């Protein structure tokens, strides 16, 4: 991390004007930052930045994102290349270990994921306790947290083997838990993982096979699932990843930290948006299909309505993931011979929004969630499983970020400050006198 000069800040301290110097740090892609860590100690001031709109919370070598140019790279490799050439398992290795695996490394990693796919038989009983209406994200987060109960030994983050085991368990078992929570919701028997199948094929089999008849795994579907999971695999310091880091900074274990990330992802402004997009498109259809009416509604601040799947905190250009998903969407629907009227509504909505000055001025483009739900529908996933699919895809990113943070000796517990705006010292009033 290069240090490149300093910024001078002049401000009143105790009635006297004081000038201090703060170091400027520059990332490998020339992103400049003012390091304010010493600001309070030098001046008594803190920085106020609600929602971290302008705050870099960490240094990280995992993912590079340029929201203005619409660039996304994992460990330097463009997302477009990974989407075209890699698999989800290989990309997971890349994110977590920092380089593309050689053949032996990939085989070992894949074997690890195959070996750890079963969940403890007792954990199956947990599923019985949930109502059939339970949202699979509620089940997923609690089951992932429960893994801490089955593997309670602390993981020494400096011990490569212990780390590998924890990572393998998590990546492999979340896939099984996700499929089991779906089976529970539709009242079908659980389908156990099969060791002869690849990561994505195994997941599809657990989701859609039934004991009564064989399930044909379509390689085209396996390929698009790989693509979708790769595109979701990391996105630097978003809401859920920051949650994983914050929780993990207290030295909470990997399962607990990721369970917290899953809950952050669930929110409709984050990963939950993919479910909301489909529900919005269905609502537009039920209403007669007038997309302009909904664009107008989204522009009306009083309505409280937003175009779901539009806008992003950091992308002020077309989300590169949405671009790839849109293309894949056309390919998959054509291949499966599906004509989904929601795709037509989505396209018309996008067209109407992208030529509307409200969306143009605010640089609001479709994000990753806008078209992903349409593919998942075509593949047979129910709407309430979309965010679970996002979580499955995001696992390598959460793990890589948790690992990076734990390996950094300078990591401290995350603990923002605040500016207090409440009462000044106030005497306690006895209840009889209130
Ligand atoms: N529809 C209508 N207006 C919008 C939308 C939208 N989807 N998104 C942003 N705006 C408007 C805001 O009202 C605001 O307008 P103003 O300047 O007149 O006040 C302006 O655009 C900037 O929006 P902010 O809310 O300040 O942007 P922020 O970075 O805080 O929010 C977010 C980003 C949460 C993604 C937002 O765009 C949104 O709510 N989108 C819909 C939900 C969604 O798709 N979430 C998924 C994001 S991708 C992901 O997490 C995986």
């Amino acid at each position: 991390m290069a240090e490149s000069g300093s910024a001078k800040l002049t401000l009143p301290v105790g009635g006297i004007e004081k000038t201090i110097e703060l170091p400027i740090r520059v990332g490998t892609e020339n992103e400049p930052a003012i390091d304010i860590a010493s600001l309070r100690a030098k001046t008594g001031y803190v920085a106020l930045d609600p929602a971290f709109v302008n705050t870099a919370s960490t240094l990280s070598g995992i993912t590079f994102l340029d929201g203005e140019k619409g660039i996304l790279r994992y460990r330097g490799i463009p997302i477009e290349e990974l989407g075209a050439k890699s698999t989800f398992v290989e990309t997971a290795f890349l994110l977590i270990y920092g380089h593309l695996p050689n053949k032996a490394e990939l085989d070992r990693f894949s074997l690890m994921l195959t070996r750890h796919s079963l969940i403890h038989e007792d954990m199956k009983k947990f599923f019985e306790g949930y109502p059939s209406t339970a949202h699979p994200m509620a089940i997923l987060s609690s089951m992932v947290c429960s893994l801490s109960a089955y593997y309670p030994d602390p993981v020494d983050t400096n011990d490569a083997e212990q780390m590998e085991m924890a990572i393998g368990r998590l990546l492999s078992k979340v896939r099984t838990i996700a499929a089991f929570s779906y089976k529970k919701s539709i009242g079908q028997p659980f389908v156990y993982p099969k060791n002869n199948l690849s990561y994505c094929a195994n997941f599809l089999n657990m989701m859609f096979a039934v004991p009564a008849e064989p399930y044909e795994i379509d390689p085209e579907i396996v390929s698009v699932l790989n693509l979708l999971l790769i595109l979701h695999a990391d996105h630097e310091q978003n809401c859920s990843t920051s949650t994983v880091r914050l929780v993990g900074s207290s030295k909470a274990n990997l399962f607990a930290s990721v369970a917290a990330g899953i809950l952050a992802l669930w929110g409709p402004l984050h990963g939950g948006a993919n479910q909301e997009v489909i529900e919005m498109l269905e609502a537009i259809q039920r209403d007669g299909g007038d997309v302009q009416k909904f664009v107008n509604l989204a522009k009306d601040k009083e309505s409280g309505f937003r175009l779901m799947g539009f806008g992003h905190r950091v992308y002020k250009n077309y989300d590169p993931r949405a671009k790839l998903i849109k293309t894949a969407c056309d390919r998959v629907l054509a291949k499966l011979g599906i004509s989904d009227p929601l795709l037509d509504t989505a396209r018309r909505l996008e067209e109407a929004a992208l030529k509307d000055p409200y969306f143009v001025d605010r640089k609001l483009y479709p994000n990753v969630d806008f078209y992903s739900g349409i593919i998942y529908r075509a593949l047979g996933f129910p709407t309430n499983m979309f965010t679970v699919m996002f979580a499955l895809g995001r696992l390598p990113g959460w793990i890589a970020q948790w690992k990076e943070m734990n390996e950094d000796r300078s990591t401290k517990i995350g603990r923002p400050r605040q500016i207090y705006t409440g009462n000044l010292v106030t005497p306690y009033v006895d209840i009889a006198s209130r």
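The radius of gyration is 24 Å. Residues 269-271, 273, 298, 306-313, 362, 364, 367-369 surround acetyl coenzyme *A (CB under 6 Å).
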